[in-house]
Amino acid sequence: MNISLCTITFRHQLISLAEIANFARESGFDGIELWGAHARNLAPQMDKDADWLADYGLAVPMISDYLPLEGDDDVLRRKTVELCRLGRRWKAKKIRTFAGGKASADTTADERRHLVTRLREVAKIVESYGIDLLVETHPNTLADTAASTIRLIDEVDHPALAINFDILHVWEAGDDPVALHRAIGRHVRHYHLKNISDRRHLHVFSPGNVYSAAGDRNGMTPLLEGAVDYADVIVGIPALAEADISLEWFGNDVFHVLRRDCETLRAQFGFEKAYQFIPKARILQAAP
Question: What residues are annotated to the active site?
Answer without folding.
Answer: 138
